[in-house]
Amino acid sequence: LSLNFGDIGNLKGLVIRFLLTTSYYQLSVQNWFSLHRLQLLYNHSIQATFNATRIYAPARYSYHCEHVSSLQRYDALLIPSSANDLSNLWEVTFIDFQIQGFKIQEGHFGYAKDCASFFSPAILMGLVMSLILLLVLAYALHMLIHLKSLDRHYECKASPTYFPQMKDNDMGDEKEPLRSSGNEFYELRNQQLCKIYI
């Protein structure tokens, strides 16, 4: 597929040539096309050649990408084919790039396969943040479920307190004898013991 621009300034007969290949893949049971190489020609000779990477789509679809470039900041889908030619002197960037080499119907692009990855850095960061928030929510729910009110842990009940037998008869009206296996103990009747469990 060739784009002929003609004469642009000092560039005589500028042509951008896309070399496309098609292959059949049994796993997907369909033909796929791929951009194999990109060539820049002017003055009737090849001046630069770039190998294309990850530019492919099913043959009945088109391929779309926001940036197809030889620059690293755009993920460098175009790589100079050799260090010995003039490819390293060129910087090529296509903006809003869309291509389809085969099975074009009525002059319109088919359904576009986009170059955006399903696991881009932004999507991965969003997944990580969602996981962290989910863990915090699970911990908060766990703490709420196991939270018990203070009323359940506060008990105030009468508890008997035992004292050995005393010879003082002044406390006869406040104590009651307890009989157990020959030993006598006394219980304070109105004694209360309060316990707080935390």
UniProtKB/TrEMBL annotation:
- Enumerate the Gene3D superfamilies for this protein: 2.40.160.110
Q: Please verify whether the record's keywords include Transmembrane helix.
A: yes
GO molecular-function annotation terms?
ATPase activator activity
Q: Where is the V-type proton ATPase subunit S1/VOA1 transmembrane domain?
A: 117-154
Name the major location. membrane
Q: Which residues form a coiled coil?
A: none
Q: Which GO terms describe its biological process?
A: regulation of cellular pH
Naming one, the record's GO cellular component terms include:
proton-transporting V-type ATPase complex
Q: What is any Pfam family matched here?
A: Ac45-VOA1_TM
Q: Does the keyword Lipid metabolism apply?
A: no
Q: InterPro entries from the entry?
A: Ac45_acc_su (IPR008388), VAS1/VOA1_TM (IPR046756), VAS1_LD (IPR046755)
Which residues are in the V-type proton ATPase subunit S1 luminal domain?
1-102
Localization per Swiss-Prot or TrEMBL = Membrane
Q: Write out the transmembrane intervals.
A: 122-145
Topology in the lipid bilayer: Single-pass membrane protein
Q: Which UniProt keywords apply?
A: Membrane, Transmembrane, Transmembrane helix
Top-level division of the source organism's lineage: Eukaryota
The Swiss-Prot or TrEMBL record describes its family as follows: Belongs to the vacuolar ATPase subunit S1 family.
PANTHER family xrefs: ATPASE, H+ TRANSPORTING, LYSOSOMAL ACCESSORY PROTEIN 1-LIKE (PTHR12471:SF3), VACUOLAR ATP SYNTHASE SUBUNIT S1 (PTHR12471)
Q: What protein am I looking at?
A: V-type proton ATPase subunit S1-like
Organism per entry: Nestor notabilis
